[in-house]
Amino acid sequence: MKASIKALYRRVLGAVLLVCAMPVLAAGTINLGSKNFTEQHVLASLTAQYLTAKGYTVNQTTDLATIIQRNALENKQLDMVWDYTGTALIIYNHIDRRMSDEEAYQTVKNIDAKKGLVWLDPAPLNNTYALAMKRSVAESEGIKTVSDLVAAMKRVQDDPEAAPWQLGFDMEFAGRPDGLKPMQAMYQLELARPQIRQMDPGLVYNAIRDGFVQAGLVYTTDGRVKGFDLLVLEDDLHYFPSYAATPVIRQEVLEQNPGLADDMNKLSALLDNDTIATLNAQVDIDHRNVDEVAAAFLRDHQLIQ
Amino acid sequence: METINDTFLYVIHNVPFILGLTVQHLRLVGIAVALAVVLGVPLGIVIVRFKWLAGVVLSLTTLVLTIPAIALFGLMIPLFSMIGQGIGAVPAITAAFLYSLLPIVRNTHTALTQLDAGVREAGRGIGLTFWQRLKWVELPLAVPLIFGGIRTAVVLNIGVMAIAAIVGAGGLGTLILHGISQSDIRKLIAGAVIVSVLAVVMDQVLLKLQRVLTPKGIR
């Protein structure tokens, strides 16, 4: 009994020491973060494999919510992330003025420079939000734009026989002050509480496909838009800002690794909407492994052996 | 049926990855519960000695357990961000540690307070002090119940730890999150089933260990 308690305590002490052993930051080590959706997994995997081949050591932390990831970057637990201009503008800096893509990029770049965060060249990809619905339903109802959808929903609402349409949103968008509410105001979209279905962003696509909601919020570069045959409705009043994917790196890390900016800019330049949507679809539709998809892309472009 | 087949194939083709997540998962739970034992068992003993503390300590540990897991993990982030550990293993282990306290403290307390009064009297009768009785008589008799608390904590936290992936701690929750975000039912099922199996297996393993540690006299 006595011996076993002693042994137990010794083991516990070992465990405590393990926790206390903080990760030591070596030169050339990059702590890479990614958010909780497929495109981010793909971007992180591309970056990790590409930089590893260049001789860096990359530690990945995946599946972080936007705000958690941003905090970790500001607290120096992460060194590099892929972020979006629209997200930085609206969520981190609460700027909801409409501006051009270039102006948006320069604005967030300047603001973050003061925090020691560097926005490298943006990839030519705009992963903005959109409302989408099943193509078959959209075509039979003659819906092409968000305004058409609003009109169609009003028609259904006025029909006492028909059940009101429901829309699916991810929880982040539904809850954000710059998300659903102002969009409703701009499009004069009236929704009773039961018509708003909140869920994980990845579930919205399945919900639209399976008819649980008539329309929902999607990311334009998501592979499931094509894969599930969804129709992206035109944002005819231009509510959604642009979301250019861009590597964001801490200034210190960039200084320690002089070649890093050029390396990353080379990768970013290859990633346009079609390319990333194809990669995303290989993961979400074909259910291929993220690392395999990323490796195949990097090999095709001779970025890794 | 096809889904089950696909899930099985997915697991077979990704054994190293899934094994890695499982080890990570168990390590997080193991460290959290071990820390809870180190603090919880002495705490359970102290509140037997100082009765006025018992109410406060047991209420507090109960209160912690009523906080939804996802909220507790969320609360850890700003807290640990202050020391630059907002994501990763530290917030996850802390949350699971807090969840482990109630079963361990309460079971230790219950085991010691509900001992047969005659046993305690006998110890007192042969002139043992409080600490001597504790060491030679009461703790050995309390082993089964204390271990019951540890088992509850482990099983509880194997489930809770599935949420740790949202704070970047990894573990089997990663599989479940990917299943949802990538519309991939195979990963979702694999993650959920492995978490459940793990809980059952660990419970049995600890039960065996408990039998070994229980004094022969009360086995």
TrEMBL record, chain A:
What highest taxon heads this organism's lineage?
Bacteria
Q: Name it.
A: ABC transporter substrate-binding protein
Q: Which InterPro entries match?
A: ABC_Gly_betaine_transp_sub-bd
The residues the entry assigns to the signal sequence are: 1-26
Q: Can you tell me which residues the record assigns to a coiled coil?
A: none
Q: Does the keyword Glycoprotein apply?
A: no
ABC-type glycine betaine transport system substrate-binding domain location is: 29-299
Record key words, sorted: Signal
UniProt KW Transcription regulation keyword? no
Taxonomic source organism? Silvimonas amylolytica
Looking up Pfam families in the UniProt record yields: OpuAC
TrEMBL record, chain B:
Q: Cross-referenced Pfam families, in alphabetical order?
A: BPD_transp_1 (PF00528)
Q: Which UniProt keywords apply?
A: Membrane, Transmembrane, Transmembrane helix, Transport
State the annotated membrane topology for this chain.
Answer: Multi-pass membrane protein
Q: Does the keyword tRNA processing apply?
A: no
Localization annotation: Cell membrane
Location (main, coarse)? membrane
Q: Which domain of life is it from?
A: Bacteria
InterPro entries (UniProt xref)? ABC_transp_perm/SBD (IPR051204), MetI-like (IPR000515), MetI-like_sf (IPR035906)
Annotated ABC transmembrane type-1 domain ranges read: 22-206
Q: Which residues cross the membrane?
A: 26-48, 55-77, 83-102, 154-176, 188-209
Q: Which family does it belong to?
A: Belongs to the binding-protein-dependent transport system permease family.
The protein's name is: Choline ABC transporter permease
